[in-house]
Amino acid sequence: MKYIYPFSAIVGQEEMKKGLLLNAVNPKLSGILIRGEKGTAKSTAVRALAALLPEIDVVADCPFSCDPDDITTMCMDCRQRLAAGEELPRAKRKMRVVDLPVSATEDRVVGTLDIEQAIKKGEKHFEPGVLAQANRGILYVDEVNLLDDHVVDVLLDSAAMGVNTVEREGVSFTHPAQFILVGTMNPEEGELRPQLLDRFGLCVHITGIMDPELRVEVIRRRAAFEEDPEGFTRQWEGEEEKLRRQIVAAKKLLPEVEIPEEMLYLIAKIAIEMGVDGHRADLVMMKAAKTMAALAGRTEVTRDDVHSSVNLALLHRMRRKPFQEMDIDREKLQVIMGGQKARHAHDYHHGHSHR
User: Fold this and answer.
1) Has 320 been annotated as catalytic?
2) Which of 47, 215, 221, 280 is catalytic?
3) What distances in angstroms separate CA 234 from CA 6, 228, 264, 293, 300, one per listed residue?
4) If we measure between CA atoms, which residue out of 187, 114, 100 comes closest to residue 148?
5) Which fold does the domain 7-55+94-209 belong to in CATH?
6) Where is the AAA+ ATPase domain positioned along the sequence (predicted)?
7) Quick one: pLDDT at residue 174?
């Protein structure tokens, strides 16, 4: 058995962990882009997240891993089988992490339709691609900035729509493609085009940890895991289970979370004053703030939730001059957050001090 390093044992990198958890609770956030230098636990965190998430029920012999209890998201084949009165075979398994190689072509990603079969026999013969494997799982794209732009576009379309449609010579085939999209990249190797950047719901920029004590802790934990993966994983199982329960509870609570008018105005104000292009940032900030509230077990969004979502939602949407680094002006943000209503100044500082 291959052991996976536990999510809760990752040292530091709080923003990255938060971004991944938010997407796990609310896949409508359209994925996360993790920018950072090599060796900053990017892929470790993605695999750890999949191992952390609760097991899912799947139709055992379905290439799209349909949910046997949800007809609304099923593929056509599973629906037809159900309609014919067949009992669908069930299985329980961990959520999958599907890796997309940088060299992937569009056919490899979306799948292919056999046109000859369609014309000769009138049958749709579909060869599933990466998007089919990734349905109800995590699609992990390392070095997303080196992928063909068109392929990135297709991925982001599917992530936003939750379906994949393949069309060839007037024949089309559609299947569910709901996945958590995680892209990683090293900015030293070139940037993503701004319009592609904007399509990732959240973005986090991570660097190596500069605190010597924490760096030593990274070494200690990694060494302990490599020496005795079973014992190390067992030691962290309590923390993992706690986090797992938190995610399940947050998913249930999310539809009930309300956002007060005042918070919507705060979100709009932040977006305007931080000089953000377009409206996607406001929508993502709202969704992320609601998801933060659900993770904290609350049904109303607070200023802290909005503040916690700012970095993740705005980092890649700020207007920048050429060669300017991605960064958020913290002082400016503090003025905006503090200046909205003076009576909240205490809340804000309180929320800021323990982060």
Assistant:
1) no
2) 280
3) 9, 10, 43, 30, 36
4) 100
5) Rossmann fold (3.40.50)
6) 28-211
7) 86
